[in-house]
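Troubleshooting: if your tokenizer reports a length mismatch, compare against these two reference records.
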Amino acid sequence: MKSLPVVSSVLAGLLFIPALASAQVVLTNSSLTYSENFDAPAGVTGNGNFAWTDNVTIPGWFSQDPSTGLESQFPGGISATQRVYSFRYTTADAGAGEGRAFGSRTTGAGTFSFAVGITNNTGGTLTGVDIDFVTAIWRTPANNTTDTLAVGYAITTAGAWTTLTYADIPELGESITQGGAGGGVNADPNGSGLFWDKSASLTGLNWADGDTLYIRFLDGNGAAAWGYRQLQCDCDS
């Protein structure tokens, strides 16, 4: 997994075609790989609020709070509101350019989650998937607080992603602890100890044709902001 000079998070290697079931990310025999670099979310045109729409703002992606998101530029712009974010690193990236990340921020009052849904339309059963991404901290946790990232998966025929029981993928999780001072500030996501290359291989799956695999990202309640880029899924039949 290669590191980039600017950190965010991407899924790489799956195919976008018209919607099947609830997800717009559909695997066919011609491509068992999905990628999403988050550089061009629909309706995000400048620093400030944007309307988040499930399965539209980023095809195949769903938010716990499908209403408002925020575009935020380092080093400022991360609000005190719990929501999804489109992070960017420089003013030059104000449009659909490089250096973006997709993520979320909690406020310390609860967790926040979002997920991508990937539908198997290969005509057969898929048994494995390799997942890779980069995650980074864009805002540090509150003082004397540990914030966590947990990633899990679930496979369903028709269930809503928010009602599923997710199996944890510990290799993709991360945590960061803030001491008694200096917390709760916007952070350079390229800083030492603030970004990680993550990867995991899931095997023995029974991902039948027509079923949807959801990968859920769960942001802990430590008030940090996590951003993601280069999340890549390579699936096996």
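Reference record two:
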Amino acid sequence: MQQMSSAITLVAMLGAAPAAMASPPACGIDVVFEGCTEYVGIGLVSMEQARSHVPSAYTVVEAAGGALLVVRVSACEAVSVDGKRPKAGKVAQVGISVTGPDDSADINNYTLFYVTDSEQLKGALTAAGVSAVLASGLSYEFDALGGDFDSLVDTPQVPRVALSGSAVPPGEEEETRFVASWWTEGKRGPVRMRTVFPRIIFSDATVTLTTSAGSVLEDLVGSQPFEFVVLDSYNAFDIATMEVTGTHPSGSGAKGGAKKTACE
């Protein structure tokens, strides 16, 4: 229940999204995730460092004098792209929270890294313009009896992301609807990955992050291990749907007005 309260507080803090969402172009991909658990951590990092990794078209959220680093890893029993045969899969995302651009979402993040062990998902995201990385060794381990949680992203294409700590299995806590939009400037233009969680259960976690020395991620987090002081949460959801479209709004959430997109 504590993490449910923290999530609601976070949504309230990020809820001021002034930009109006443009109609997505008639292209993109649809992904269904089923039977999933996830860890999500949000911590404070240097605003100066964060802005240096986020394009000027996006406005970085300011909180307590810093920016918000978002780290998410998820393991699902089934991942299906555009109705194809589902397979088990895992994803890892690292990003910076931004204001808007999707005012229908509870949180917007600019993507720094997207890693998956699903060839189907990686191929579809690459085709949509996302610089996704395929990592067969992406690990995600949770001991429901002891509460130990560990996850590791260790591939040459992105900085090492090692998460370690403890988590509480989601139980009978209240389910809630949540929407998250992750953005990236792909090779062919801006891309939005919008995921709707119709019924997600938030629970507690105490997890820290370590990363490669001299990496972009170390520049952001500074001293290690890095603690997630804003949100530290282990969650579960039966189903979520992700729509990937090449779209970018005009207005104050994205400076400079409408832009050409990957789908135009």
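Descriptive notes for reference record two:
- Confidence is low (pLDDT under 50) at residues 15-26, 248-264.
- The CA atoms of residues 37 and 236 lie 4 Å apart.
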